[in-house]
Write a structure and sequence with these properties.
It is a single chain. About 55% of the residues lie in helices and about 5% in strands. The protein is mostly helical and about 210 residues long. It has 2 domains: about 100 residues, Recoverin, domain 1; about 90 residues, Recoverin, domain 1. It has a two-stranded antiparallel sheet with strand order 1-2. Helix 7 packs across helix 8. The longest helix has 17 residues. It is elongated and about 55 Å long. The two termini are about 35 Å apart. One of its GO terms (molecular function) is calcium ion binding. Keywords: Calcium, Metal-binding, Repeat.
């Protein structure tokens, strides 16, 4: 629904405080973009937000994000109310982390992307799914899944690998076959390239 000028000002002020990483003019631009995206979305949300399809198309065109599994996970993280649509608050606050988040915020965001079942750990199975989707497998490979499984074990055993163009130093510090946030955080603080170790889930520097 159309918002009064006063309502928009209050929304901008509120989001400038909560999103932290954007100034007022940037928040105004993001709200304007939000309105444009809502106009493209299906009418089922009565103007309250836009759906998964519009969200995926936007991240693809704006940031070059193409992995379907990652895009679905990003949508789920933005959609904090689990309503099936992205509201203006979720949009601006989500982009604040995606584009300008601190290392701490981005670690929590990336960890949540990789923790597919939301249990607080990245399991072998979740690592496998994420790596399988992000790696380019050559058609000639007879057993591509075996290579992915090997990478998962390398990640857990903190052995070096340049297969993903980053050194695999992730370590299962408590040796339980899965990574807790504490494991992930320690590894990323030691080597920031590991932030996206299991697949690209942030826009590139461009």
């Amino acid at each position: 629904a159309a918002m009064s000028r006063k309502g928009v000002k209050l929304l901008v002020d509120s989001l400038t405080r909560s999103a932290k990483h954007f100034n007022k003019s940037e928040v105004e631009c993001l709200i304007s973009l939000f309105d444009t995206l809502v106009a493209r979305a299906s009418s089922q949300f009565a103007g309250a937000g836009f759906d998964r399809t519009v969200f995926r198309d936007t991240l693809h065109s704006a940031f070059g994000m193409t992995d379907d599994v990652v895009l679905d996970r990003v949508f789920s993280i933005f959609d904090r109310r689990n309503s099936g649509c992205i509201t203006v608050v979720e949009w601006v606050e989500g982009l604040a982390v995606l584009l300008r988040g601190t290392l701490e915020e981005k670690m929590k965001y990336c960890f949540a992307i990789y923790d597919l079942n939301g249990d607080g750990y990245i399991s072998r199975e979740e690592m496998f799914q994420m790596l399988k989707n992000s790696l380019l497998i050559q058609p000639a490979d007879e057993e591509p899944d075996e290579g992915v499984k090997d990478l998962v074990e390398i990640a857990l055993k903190k052995m070096a690998s340049t297969y993903l163009f980053v050194p695999f130093l992730l370590q299962d510090y408590d040796h339980d076959g899965k990574l807790s946030f504490e494991d992930f955080e320690k590894a990323v603080r030691d080597e920031k390239l590991l932030l996206e170790a299991f697949g690209p889930c942030l826009p590139d520097i461009k």
